[in-house]
């Protein structure tokens, strides 16, 4: 059986803020079968993850592109791999059977052909919506869990600041930190997001950074006794302001620097603070923390079942809407994990 | 008995590069006795340490001034405490007797009155010159040892870059790293220093940064396979260039940022590199590593006795020359540990 597969490609490299004109919806016929002797797995995509880091892959050049296999350069005109949940339609790999639910690196499209060796595993939904496995129980969740517990090494009562706190990772860091017994302040880019952080997710405080003119003073106001942990998703001025307000032996976990992705503007923290306050600034990727994967899944699913944690999701339907969903990440359109629903389950 | 004590003070705060006009040699009569009931210790200073960090104490404001007791602000017109070796002339403290050699926080002057609770201990020279206890066996040595072994966590064969490699701490980091089995490249600011690093101290390579126009390319040339550890003494452009050349899981130990002390110019490392290469940038102070103090002393004194390590010292005589010795730190005049000899032993 053959279908017409619709999928998203970039038309050129993207070296600034992404725009609709950078993207194209392509169609190609695809056989829903596997050649004899091939180990390919053909899957029908259900939900795909929309993440800011993809922009670094779209650039003509980014140092990120040589870092790890899923961060390699995206070639204009070719399919774009992304994390997501799918259903197997044909398998040449004995690990997968037709109709299996799977999670892993699929594509921004209706179908994906997953080669052997690529990240793909069978998915047990454990009674949760499938979208949870793209976000809170997927790599966004692992980034938050590994980044907070492993990189930040929190102690109860410490003061935690989270930027892009209503984003896919930030909202979870704040929830983990609160459940762990920290004081948590988040920043976000709208009044609605700020209210949500405080009222739905239990942040102690939150503020809209767009209302502030001097971020150092703002953070001083929210942290009169200083910041112990800064979970950084934005970089640039916010990182500078956080370092200025950090306590001795403070830790900065750098998960992402979205403000630097589009314009290359750099953070310039005061290194005198770094030395004298003995601050640690550490970059990390979720994939580094597979050692805590089973803890992450059991802890998070327990919290979800008891209602102690909330999955904050922002789901758009339709493969054709992937570009706008992606573009919206850089103007703060999403609230929580951005997911595009490709097909009914 | 009373003497005329000559000592150095600042005339004003110093908010840029230090100049002779910022300093003054003051005189005051001093009783070489201790009042009954006082715990003071009066010492005759022999050697005092001349360190870049003192500039941060001289500023009208620096975030460093609230970090730790020996980094507090220096008040214009008042004596300046500094690490050094001295001999007790009178003691109200039962731990010290007349003629004891001591090491600790004394003053930029001929005599010091050390209050109880200030850092001072009896010194066993262990057969080494007294100056070694100001530098290689003092806080410079501990900064190098603790910074390299504890903060950088080196593995044999790793590639290490050291800036201000002929400075008081840098030259020791390079020597420790070589003895540990690392590949070591240092940078310094003159041909003479570069030769010394390679010929006397055993660095694998060294270069004069003043001869280079593009530090990123320079480091690429010396580290075609990347840098695993950067021991940073300068900050700014060199930190940026090192981060750009670092390997995955690279570590930056920030011991000092001398290039940022005088002009406030900031380093702006590429945070995308920090994230994707999972780089750790960590500031530290020697005082944080007292836990390895006895290891440091035994290892270093063994290396000195076997001739595996060299003490690189730059000694100027005369209390009146403290300002010029200090000013010279910021133009790279010193080669190795800068010490002013105050009196014959």
Automatic annotation (TrEMBL), chains A, B:
Keywords: Oxidoreductase. InterPro entries: ADH-like_C, ADH_N_2, ER, GroES-like_sf, MDR_fam, NAD(P)-bd_dom_sf. The keyword Signal does not apply. SMART domains: PKS_ER (SM00829). It comes from the Eukaryota. Pfam families: ADH_N_2, ADH_zinc_N. Coiled coil: none annotated. One of its GO terms (molecular function) is oxidoreductase activity, acting on the CH-CH group of donors, NAD or NADP as acceptor. Residues 16-340 form the Enoyl reductase (ER) domain. Gene3D superfamilies: Medium-chain alcohol dehydrogenases, catalytic domain (3.90.180.10), NAD(P)-binding Rossmann-like Domain (3.40.50.720). This is Enoyl reductase (ER) domain-containing protein. It comes from Juglans regia (English walnut).
């Amino acid at each position: 059986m053959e279908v017409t597969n619709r999928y998203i490609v970039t038309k050129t490299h993207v070296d600034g803020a992404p725009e609709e004109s950078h993207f194209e919806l392509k169609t190609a016929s695809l056989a829903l079968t596997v050649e004899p002797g091939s180990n390919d797995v053909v899957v029908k995509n259900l939900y795909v993850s929309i993440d800011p880091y993809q922009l670094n892959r779209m650039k003509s050049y980014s140092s990120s592109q040589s870092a790890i296999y899923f961060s390699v350069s995206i070639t204009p005109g070719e399919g774009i791999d992304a994390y997501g949940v799918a259903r197997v339609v044909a398998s040449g790999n004995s690990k997968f059977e037709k109709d299996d639910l799977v999670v892993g690196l699929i594509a921004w499209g209706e179908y994906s052909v997953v080669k052997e060796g690529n990240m793909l595993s069978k998915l047990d939904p454990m009674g949760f919506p499938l979208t949870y496995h793209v976000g809170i129980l997927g790599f966004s969740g692992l980034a938050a869990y590994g980044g907070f517990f492993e990189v930040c090494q929190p102690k109860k009562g410490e003061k935690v600041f989270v930027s892009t706190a209503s984003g896919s990772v930030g909202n979870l860091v704040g929830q983990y930190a609160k459940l762990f017994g920290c004081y948590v302040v988040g920043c976000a880019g709208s009044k609605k997001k700020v209210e949500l952080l405080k009222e739905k997710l239990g942040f102690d405080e939150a503020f809209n950074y767009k209302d502030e003119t001097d971020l150092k003073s703002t953070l001083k106001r929210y942290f009169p006794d200083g910041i112990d942990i800064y979970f950084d998703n934005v970089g640039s001025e916010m990182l500078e302001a956080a370092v200025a307000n950090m306590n001795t032996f403070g830790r900065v976990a750098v998960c992402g620097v979205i403000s630097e992705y589009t314009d290359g503007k750099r953070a310039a923290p005061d290194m005198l603070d770094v030395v004298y306050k003995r601050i640690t600034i550490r970059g990390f990727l979720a994939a580094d923390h597979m050692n805590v994967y089973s803890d992450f899944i059991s802890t998070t699913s327990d919290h979800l079942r008891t209602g102690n944690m909330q999955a904050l999701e922002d789901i758009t339907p339709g493969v054709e809407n992937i570009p706008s969903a992606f573009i919206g990440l850089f103007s703060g359109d999403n609230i929580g994990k951005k997911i595009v629903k490709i097909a009914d389950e």
